[in-house]
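G., the chain you wanted modeled:
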Amino acid sequence: MENPHGGLQHSLKTRHVTMISIGGVIGAGLFVGSGTMINSSGPGAIVSYIIACLMVVLIMRMLGEMAVVNPDSGSFSTYAHQAVGPWAGFTIGWLYWFNWTIIVTIETVLLGTMLHNWVPSIPIWLASVCFPIIMAISNAFSVKVYGEFEYWLAFIKVAAIVIFLGLGAAIIMGLVPGVKAQGLSEMMAGADFFPHGFTPVLLGVIFITFSISGSEVAAIAAGESTNPEKNIIRAINSVVWRLMLFFIGSVLILVMVIPQGAKKLLETPFASVFDMAGLPAAGQIMNIIIFISMLSVLNSGLYTGSRMLYSLGLKGDAPKFTTIVTKRGVPIWALFICVVFTYVFTLFKFISPNTLFVFLADSSGGVTLIMYVFIAISHVRMRIKAEKENPGSLKVKMWLFPYLTYATILVLITIYSAQAFIGSMRSQFFLTSILTVMIIGSYFLFYHKKEKVSSSLPNAKLSKIHPE
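Predicted structure as tokens:
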């Protein structure tokens, strides 16, 4: 192994980063969750998806502006450290790592369950043990291998959606015999567009915001690419059209093709549309696509978690051994810790699924919104500083600054606070809030004292953000 501060490699290609950014938002939340949304909101689910996608687009624009100026594997944790303070970088870094570890655990168990359903002789626990190891191997070899593996996993997901969009368009144009789509004017007439009122539409925004997070992985991955600035700009510019096309386009087709109130069809909405068009084995094909989607999330989760832990280690916010990098540029001990905690949380899922694991899952439920608030606040401070000191570095700019950024912060805080008044989300709100306060408290109790000691030493380097 190289020196612990040997640094990460920059070997991801543009196609890797682009496909990672696309695949980051496509998962079971779209393939299955969209049906749940339409079931509760009716055609009004389209409005929920438009609002949620708009929020993610704005956040990615802010993140892209900061990432072009300073590509970093710690991404928004590093920017919060620089713009708000070390406590902010510490807090959001550990929250984000915890959130991804919970997501990886959930995907691990779901993958094990799916494999068990296909091959009953394989126990769920055994299958669940295998998948993190397989994905960890792809991550441990080199970042280029991870990028190539993720490229093809994401490519399959994108291909499935493109085929679905093409089929949906053909149905809407009347080119598929035996299937009649609902017209836009017919769908929007009367009270049918909001059959259950507007409240489920607003609640849906919260659910969708959680389910479509993942675009930010591109900003982390771009820090290890051959041309970080170019790749970040490309990923940021593409986030608008891909969210519009893949999410809003898919939901629009679903509400126009699947009859309102068809709850059974909405349980597996994409498979239902394929089945209605006469495609054989539609359910089995979509199960395979969902399986691949979860593999992709697991793969990206281990990558993202290890890079965030590595970045925390560089700033002194995690044990120093997490900065040890192999000759191929992989933070191997940070990756190992992610796998270990995945197994620990998976064990909790099996021994206490309805108590201990639910407690952990709810604790991470609101992390995405907290992360978005930190990104927006960091953006305001770093943009003002850049305009004063180096305006030429702003290759990507947030629209209507600072008004749109402030509006985004207000909406995010409103959405996060709204959870306290929703029965099904109340525990998530309080547990995530308590966890956040505990992490902030641990910083000031332990790490803040270490910083004070370090600052008293001559020529101390407090924030070695870019060792490589």
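Confidence is low (pLDDT under 50) at residues 1-5, 453-468.

Shout if anything looks off.
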